[in-house]
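Title: Prediction job returns without error message
Component: structure pipeline
Severity: low
Priority: P3
Assignee: unassigned

Description:
Job completed but the reporter wants confirmation the result is attached to the right record. Sequence as submitted:
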Amino acid sequence: MSDSFKTGWPVSFRFPGMRSPTTTSPKDAVRRFYAKLDEAIRTGDFDVLDEVIQRDAVDHNPDPDMELGRDGIKKGFAGLRTAMTDIRFTIEDLVAEGDKVACRVTTQATHHGPFMGFAPTGRTISYTVIDILRFSDDGKLLERWGLIDEATLRQQLSAGQSR
């Protein structure tokens, strides 16, 4: 029997995925992550992402040839910025359970550079990303499982182009 049961003092139980009141909520971590991502995209300073991504973060659905960890994630977003201008991320839905958040995000941008094998079109494109993100207690991204609506994206990139 634990000392807290013997003394009559309240017992604190911790269940998997349960957070203490002093930790960052997963939903707040997602909002902060996208705010920092927006800042990085606008300014080109991807080092600001160090504040919201753990060094050894794992992307379970990486782009082909993507480096591992935070540096790979930063380079991926830097590449997106090269191909797309005026990128905007809109969080449409957030559903949290424990230390994970499922989110549906609309990405809108203008296609100004080569991307996914497509020549620049100058058109505004919009596509959806569905992510499950896991965060540390201090609000840093630890893991990502994600799906991009690639069919819609490819359709917009290829419209009017012969392949």
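Comment from assignee: result matches the submitted record. Confidence is low (pLDDT under 50) at residues 1-15.
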